[in-house]
Design brief:
136 residues, alpha+beta, Alpha-D-Glucose-1,6-Bisphosphate, Chain A, domain 4, 8-stranded antiparallel sheet, 4 helices, 47% strand
């Protein structure tokens, strides 16, 4: 079984855009969590994390999004980064059946730098990298 991008929605309110994705993985939450909560994990599929203090209020700098702080942190469940110029990026993991997990992703931002297509490509890369780990 492979991962899948089940749903993507995009809303715009004035100059504020909100992207939502539901991504399913055939792996338990603890196996997927590092992809959102560690510099190595984020760098493998999203963008290099130049700074990441993994706790509420910690500093974070994501190369493609800017610097800011960790605004939500619940180990193996929620990582949220609020970045100056990059908006709010939230990864919310939950159990999905016996062995799987589901990511409820939100990116709220201003301007038009990001897009649904760009995030879909990132999530496809994440799914591929997780599947490569399984076959290694």
């Amino acid at each position: 079984m492979t991962g899948s991008i089940e749903q993507a929605t995009s809303r715009t309110h004035g100059n504020t855009h909100v992207l939502h994705f539901l991504v399913r993985f055939p792996r338990p939450m603890e196996a997927v969590w590092p992809a959102f909560s560690t510099p190595e994990g984020l760098g493998a599929w999203c963008t290099p994390a130049e700074v990441l203090q993994p706790h509420l209020g910690g500093a974070v700098t994501l190369r493609d999004f800017g610097s800011g702080q960790v605004t939500a942190w619940d180990v193996e469940r929620v990582a949220e980064y609020t970045l100056e110029g990059g908006g709010r990026i939230r990864f919310h993991l939950e159990r999905d059946g016996e062995e799987g997990s589901a990511l409820r992703f939100t990116h709220e931002f201003r301007g038009d730098r990001e897009s649904e297509a760009r995030w879909r490509a990132r999530f496809e890369l994440l799914i591929d990298s997780l599947e490569a780990e399984d076959s290694a």
